[in-house]
Amino acid sequence: MKCHHTAILAALAGLTAAEVPQEHSHEKYLIAVNELLQLNNPFNIADSVFGFLGAAAAADGAGDVTNTDCLQQITADSAFTGAKTAGDIDGMANALIFRALERNSLSVGERSALCNETAENPEIAAISQHQDPASEGAAEENKAITLALAQQLALIGADPQLALESGTFPPGEIGDPTAAGFTCNDATDPVGCIFTENLLVPDATPEEIDAAVAEVLAEGDAAGIADGGVNEALVPICEAIGAGAGAGADAGVVAPPANGTAAADPAASEAVATPAEEEEAAAGDEAATATDNNIQTFTGTLGGAAPAIVSSAANADRPFSVGDVTFTTDNAALSRSCAVQNNACFNAANAGQLAEGTAACSAQEDDCLAAARLRKVRRNARAVTRGADGRMRFARAARLVRRQNDFGSCADPSIQFAEGLDGRAEASFGPAGDFDHGSANNVDIITSFICGQLGSRCGAGEATVAACEDGAAAASGLEGEQAAQAFNSALGL
């Protein structure tokens, strides 16, 4: 697929005099999507730029797309599919951001038409394009789009703070006869003039991005899969943070219960059982519910029972599961189960629903881990040593990573907890090595990104990715510097 400059110039020449184009303002994302269209372009779209033009101009480069109001979405959808097939997280992120960019309109304050079709990829379907900042309600709508984009970026393992780059210009003046507003349009700027000329107005704060991402991770919403299946692109990310990669988070979709048993299908059988058969079946069901290969033996219930951990031989590579999330080791699954219960307990205590308070939650987590013969990092002194740099180190994990010596093309996946990251006044988490990600208050956001990138971008070995997942699970149950140390120690750093 090549860029048809003649067709593009002809289309741009046909714009009305009142329209001031801005389709090249975020040029780096147009370039990235054009590269992805070379991998997957079923509609023969001439160039990504046509997705930002008005209907008449867009038709000249729409290829086989007949609904030009959906050209931007279809372009992003095709690009996302190509990136997902290639395991390219950065490419998927570029396609998502492309989908959220503002389209041209004929006058200041005029809204662009929304697509009335559903994208094939639920990640693309979850977001829409920015609207003219001078249009009615644009500030609230564009902020909602940016936050939804951030959630999707986080769920694929990309930096959710990149969502801020989808923002648009300051609002222009309604009735401006030039229709220019405060825009720019420079096709020769490979980055995008909205960035180089510092014209972008952020729709949200980094803290609001963090809050939106934390919300979707807590809900276990893995990009809204609506077909009951599993989004394979999300598996390495979601299992590091405890979010589902399947349909269980979607409203209206029946998810497996917490004990890992399948939901009943009322159409599965029409046979009528005899009383004796019913009694025998009930006894069998009770036994299955009681055990079901559940290796979580802890019985504490503050904030709710610890999620069941199902051991199954059906998946030899990842035989342990908590809900619909699988793990390579029982320790990682047990740690996750205890951490999930602890988070629920803290939420209940902070909401005033537990008279015992958060101290009881911490004590319960100790008991949960003790039942599994595990310990929190801060209390398992025998398993932890301190290096010359003062960092806690897990001897087993360190030996594993040194033996494998495999971070792939990446050198340092460590994280830090420090003040001043990205200009924040409070301490936050962020990569300490060669991973590019904005800071976050929630350690899960950083560790999930790094574990996902280790497997996809860096090409790290399976053992290293598994160690990363173990570290992410351990860090999730801790706070501050202890969380960072737990994650780093699991990787031998």
Structural commentary:
- With 493 residues, the protein is mainly alpha-helical.
- The protein is built from 17 helices and seven strands.
- It has helices at 5-13, 27-37, 55-58, 71-85, 89-100, 122-125, 138-156, 193-196, 206-219, 235-241, 275-290, 330-350, 358-371, 395-404, 443-456, 462-476, 480-490; strands at residues 309-311, 320-322, 325-327, 384-386, 392-394, 415-418, 428-431.
- Strand 2 (320-322) and strand 3 (325-327) form a beta hairpin.
- The longest helix has 21 residues, at 330-350.
- The model is unreliable at 1-20, 221-292 and 375-405 (pLDDT under 50).
Number of separate strands: 7
The number of distinct structural domains comes to: 3
Proportion of residues in helical segments: 40-55%
Structural class: mainly alpha
InterPro entries: Appressorial_penetr-assoc
Keywords: Signal
Signal peptide: 1-18
Which terms would index this structure?
signal; 41% helix; single chain; 493 residues; two-stranded antiparallel sheet; mainly alpha; disordered N terminus; 3-stranded antiparallel β-sheet; Appressorial_penetr-assoc
